[in-house]
Backbone:
């Protein structure tokens, strides 16, 4: 844990590359960049990693000091694989375009970097302040159950989609698709030089209903299983992957039930059966990805 102390003007701080991933381009990330632009320090940089063509937004990007890195047709895995090549500051603060930060979270991140110079990674935690329908909560819990602020202590893992990591730990080359999510960030986390603060949090905004929540989690499961499995699938390896997926589903359902029981007063009625439906969607996607690859899910995943 760390002391929230205040910093005085002139204290040295690690410089930050704020990176926003967005398949759709600047419009989807504009509200987030408004906050980042107002709260960042002078030695930081703003980067938009996108699969879209940003030529129509070139003027506004320039005026707001945002550098767009365009990777046409890229998946989110592909975009995150470019982070080591795109960033030039001491630290990388990665955020999804559908997550929202406030100034307090950014200031807390700077303070933690200053007060804990030994850290290599800061785990970002999540809140659900906007997507507060019953299905919105179910979708949030499916992803953030173990990173749902406030937490009594640092989580057992780090999200790879919203995270702060020391730039020198990333190397200087583009990564393989999936390496950021399934190898690099988990590997850095395991070193133990990890910090967290409940103030360093994002509001994860996803407006969903039954159909869109089911589809989102199916594609997430299939895309991840497809990227992890690569192209070399045999019947035997697929069967083993399906068994692992089933065991993981059962274990996660048990863990989530225990987790949400402790904060049930904050949650809508009917969350349990909604989580089972969303969890089953993810399981079906994982099975499909294990047996047939990621297919279009890798590109659809948002």
Residues:
């Amino acid at each position: 844990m760390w002391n929230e102390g205040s910093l005085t003007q002139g204290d040295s701080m690690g410089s930050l590359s704020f990176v926003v991933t967005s398949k759709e381009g600047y419009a989807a990330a504009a509200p987030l960049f408004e906050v980042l632009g107002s709260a960042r320090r002078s030695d930081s940089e703003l980067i938009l990693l996108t699969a879209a063509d940003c030529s129509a937004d070139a003027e506004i990007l320039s005026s707001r000091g945002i550098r767009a890195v365009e990777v046409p047709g890229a998946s989110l895995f592909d975009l995150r694989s470019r982070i080591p090549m795109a960033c030039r500051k001491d630290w990388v603060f990665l955020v999804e375009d559908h997550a929202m930060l406030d100034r307090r979270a950014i200031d807390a991140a700077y303070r933690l970097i200053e007060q804990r110079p030994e850290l290599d990674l800061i785990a970002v935690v999540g809140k659900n302040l906007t997507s507060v329908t019953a299905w919105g909560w179910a979708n949030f819990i499916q992803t953030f159950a173990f990173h749902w602020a406030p937490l009594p202590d640092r989580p057992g893992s780090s999200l790879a989609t919203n995270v702060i990591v020391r730039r020198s730990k990333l190397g200087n080359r583009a990564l393989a698709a999936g390496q950021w999510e399934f190898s690099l960030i988990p590997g850095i986390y395991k070193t133990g030089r990890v910090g967290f603060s409940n103030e360093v949090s994002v509001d994860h905004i996803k407006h969903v209903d039954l159909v869109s929540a089911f589809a989102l989690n199916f594609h997430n499961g299939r895309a991840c299983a497809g990227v992890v499995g690569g192209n070399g699938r045999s019947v035997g390896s697929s069967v083993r992957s399906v068994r692992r997926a089933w065991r993981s589903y059962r274990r996660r359902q048990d863990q989530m039930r225990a987790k949400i029981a402790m904060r049930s007063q904050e949650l809508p009625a009917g969350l349990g059966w909604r989580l089972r439906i969303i969890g089953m969607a993810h399981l079906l996607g994982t099975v499909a990805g294990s047996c047939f690859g990621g297919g279009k899910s890798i590109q659809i995943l948002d």
